[in-house]
Structure formats: C-alpha cells, structure tokens
Amino acid sequence: MAWWRSHANLRVIGVLLLGQLVSFFTALISLTSSLIAKQGVDAPLTQSMFAYASLALIYGSIQLYRHQKPLVSWYWYLPLAFADVHGSYLITQAYQYSSITSVTLLYCCTIPWVIILTWFFLGTRYSMWQLSGIIICVLGLFVALFSDTGSVGGGSRPILGDALVILATLFYAISNVGMEFCAKRKDRVEVLCMLGVFGFLITIIEASVTELKTVKSVKWSVDIVLCFIGCAVSSFMFCTITPFVLKLGGSAIFNLSSLTSNIWAVIFKVFIYHEKVSWLYFLSFAIIIVGLIIYSAIGKDSILASAANEYEDQNTAYQVINDESTTNGKDSSYE
Known about the structure:
Pfam families: SLC35F (PF06027)
InterPro entries: EmrE-like, SLC35_F1/F2/F6, SLC35F_Transporter
Keywords: Membrane, Transmembrane, Transmembrane helix, Transport
Largest sheet: none
Transmembrane segments: 12-37, 43-62, 74-92, 104-122, 129-147, 159-179, 191-210, 222-246, 253-273, 279-298
Number of strands: 0
Membrane topology: Multi-pass membrane protein
Shape: globular
Structural class: mainly alpha
C-alpha cells in the first residue's frame, strides 16, 4: 500500500494502458468478426461459444486446482452471462439494420447506463471534473465519426437497428457493473470461470436453435478456422484483462477506454489493408486520451481506495485465520 500511494501516478497510467489494451482487443475482435463475415459465415453465437469455452476451460481448471468454494452463488452468474452474451449478439444484429456510424454513436449510451447503475448499486459518486472528462471522451468519438457523416442513417430498418443498439448497451452496462462488483469484492478467477461456463451453456443452446443450419452449410477452410481461432483468442484476452480495468478504474473508465476501439480499427486498416484515413481519427484519439487523463487524474483517489479496500479485506481474512489458530491453540492446551 505504501508503494501504491507513493506511485499513484504510475498506477493511473497503468490503468489507462490496460484500458487501451482492452480497446485494442475489442478492435481485433471486430476485425476477425468482419473477416468471418466476408467468408460468408453469419454465426455470431457460434463465435462467442468458442470464446466462452476457452474461459471455462482455462479458468475452470485454475478454480478446480485451487479447491476454493465459490464466493458468489452460481445463480447470480447466470444473469451476468446472459447480459454479456446478448449484448454482443444484439450489437451484431444491429449492423444488419442500421449504419455503422449510427451503431457507433448509440453505443455511447453504455456510458450513462453505467453511471446510473454504479451510482445506485455500487454507490459510486462522480465529480463535475470526472463528468467533464466523460463529455470530452464522447466529443472525441464524434470527431472520429465526423468524416463518416455520409453514412449516418441508412440501413434497411434504422429504427429497429437503433433500438437493438440501445438494448445492447443496457445489457453491456449490466454485465460491466456486475463484473466490477465481483472483481472488486470477490475473486477474478471465479468470475471469469463462471462467466465462461454459463456463457458457453447459453450460446450452445441458442446457437443449436438459431444457427445450426448456418454452421452446417459453411464450407470450412483454413482461413475460416484461423479467423475463428483469432476471434476466440482476442475475446479470451479481452475478458482476461477486463476485470483488472474494472477493479482498478471502474466500469466508467472501462467504457470510456473502449471508445478508442474505432481508432485501433483504423490503424488496422492502415497497416493491413493500406487504406488512407482522415487526420480527424488521430485528433479524435488525442481528444479521448485527454478526456481519460482528466477523468483518471480526478479519480485517482477512488483507484487508491479500491486498493485500500482490497488490502483491508486481506488483512481481515488473515486476522480471522490468526484468531482461529489462537483459539485452537488455547483449546488444545486446555485439553
């Protein structure tokens, strides 16, 4: 704790870097998903199923090795996994009815949902400076989308697409806030294990009903398999890093960091497809980073408080163990 407090600025920078790493893997998931779509495969639940299976396999093995009883009842993880699965599914479906720009703009609704949920359920309070940082981040996203104004609207059924996005952002917010609560007060390995188990069960059941014919009709090739593997690995890394960002920075900074995923996607286009992009994207990235710095610098105390709470919880646990051992010692000597 002494090191943490004396190196507070480094810790804040670490949270920002982790947030950008999450944003990077978000863009990588979008890239691999688009490559799968270009191969003529429309099976978003099947894609998610492999990601959840990897979480269940790896973190489930760690949980079994630790022989640790669950800290949270299993039935609480079911709605958490349900929200996580259907948030991704609804966003994917929204692209079929609305334009990419509209979906991206409405995705910002996740931020107010998160603020409302954390305010009422986690007791998080936001200062005016933090709210200013949030507004600056959203403005930075609007700058990036300014060059795509020609695609605003569009889509076959834009109203339906927009409604799906708004519902998806609510599911995302529920998932983020639930994971933040579990990551801060419970165990990260258990959260990822149970998310993987229930996410896999939900996706395999729904995919067998809605995507079975699609999967059977796919002409599997090396490229398609590699894209599925890339999507699963990217999703696994995204889920692995997410609890750290939620624990250290909270759901708000997690979603604010995710706003730069579009910038990472543009960088992929530059280096992979050799496309020319507008300078507004880089200006947008700079504005979002400034907003994140303002939010994180003001929220430094909350980051330190999270560490202090964890430190106190560990001390309490050690104190209980010591008390029990002392009591057992007295009883044995009495006998």
